[in-house]
Every structure is written in structure tokens, then in C-alpha cells.
Amino acid sequence: MPASAAHTSDQAPVPVRRARTPWCAGRREAGQAAIQTAILLPLVLLLIIACIQATLWFAGRQVAVAAASEGARSAAAETGTVGSGQAAAIEFASTTGRGFLLVPTATVTRSETTALVTVSGKTLSLIEGWELAITQTATMPVERLTAPTGPGTP
């Protein structure tokens, strides 16, 4: 039985009143979800890309630190040279950091007491034309034999 015709058998039908709503209430909300999605989706995608880019930069930085340490270890050995430190750093960065540290270069300086290795390179970028440079340095004391000094030495 329709809502407007609700009645009992001995009474006349009483129309049912519905609450009035503005005629435009449903129209104002139409398409609101699409607009919210159009605004928020690019922001969420940008946040995801930024997180991935930060992860790639951090991985490249870790490779550069490890390569600099490896080069410093090689250059600081008793028989180590500037060339051996540079070769060790480049080899480590090229093999272990393949894909995370692009075009690695190493600069090595060795004095009587310390070996300093600086590894530089670039990391992968998700945004074309945007290059993130990475430079990390490691220092190690040079191994050397010395004569004992002090009381009780012959």
C-alpha cells in the first residue's frame, strides 16, 4: 500500500508528510568524492615517489661510505698506496653498489700517519634531469712499524 494511502477501514485516508529538504541538497554533494580524489591522489603519489627517492639516496650513500672505508683500509695498509686505495674504493662501489651509486669516483690522499679516501657519485633518480650527488669520506691511520720507546727498552 502506498505511503500516502495509509488508513484504516472506517477512516478516510490521511496523507503522510515527508520532511522537506532543500531541492539542491543532493546536487551540492554530487561529484564531491571525485574532486577529493583528484586533489589527494597526486599528493599521495608524490609522497610515495619522495619515499622511494629518499630510499635510493640512502642506499647510494651507504655504498659510498662502505667504498670509502674499503679504499681507506687498502691505502692505510703498511704496503698500501694511493693507487691501491683508489682501485679498492672504485671496485667496491662498482660491484657492490651497482645500481645505487652511479659513476663512482675516488680521491685518495695518504700521509705518513693517515689515509683519506673520498668517494663521490650520483644516485638513481625517479625524476628525469634531477641528479642527486653523493660524497662520503673515510679516514684510517696508516699501519707502520715503530721502535719501542720508554723505560725498560734496550
TrEMBL record:
The chain crosses the membrane at residues 37-59. InterPro entries: TadE-like_dom. It holds the Pfam family TadE. Residues 31-73 form the TadE-like domain. Keywords: Membrane, Transmembrane, Transmembrane helix. This is Flp pilus assembly protein TadG. It comes from Promicromonospora sukumoe.
